[in-house]
What we know:
By secondary structure, the protein is of the alpha/beta class. The protein has one domain: Roll (Restriction endonuclease-like alpha-beta roll fold), CATH 3.10.640.10. Helix content is about 25%, strand content about 35%. It has four helices and eleven strands. The longest helix is centred in the first third of the chain and has 14 residues, at about 35-50. The model is unreliable at about 185-190 (pLDDT under 50).
Amino acid sequence: MALKATIFKAELTVSDTDRGYYATHALTIARHPSETDERMMVRLLAFAVHAGESLQFTTGLSTEGEPDLWQRSPSNEIDLWIDVGLPDEKHLRRACGRARQVVVYAYGGNRAGIWWARVGDALSRLDNLSVFQLPREATNELAALAKRGMSIACMISDGSIWLSDTTKNLCVEPAVWKTARPGRHESASAR
């Protein structure tokens, strides 16, 4: 018998002074049986950073060729494609061909550094790709916020991401490994 996803509910309040975006989102997050709390919470962090009315979690791990989150235009084009973890180069090349903007949130400590050393040069040619690295300590603390019913406040200012629930506060400061070049690929609605 196949294992089923575990359902998490999150009330996420976003105060993003960098974008001037302020909203509360009632989210349902399906955690795949093979997914860790750390990975699921990195997906939630990515949602907070790019929050908008049309941003959605996808089926992710269970469907090949889909990102973890995406934002589609009214004409069903992919404006924003977000992956978390250490996706392979071929996957990211396809994503950059399908979406206006692609963002990766790499995490995993030393593994992330090894991954970037292996693929960074090849990915540097993808104009619509941005890659951010999340520190290991921060993603471990982020995993500790995971609960089946969560209420999380997120404040974003000057690139720093502050997350808190009723018991814990943490700051995540992503390292910028690559930024998309401005131009025809970049969407005004995406970060």
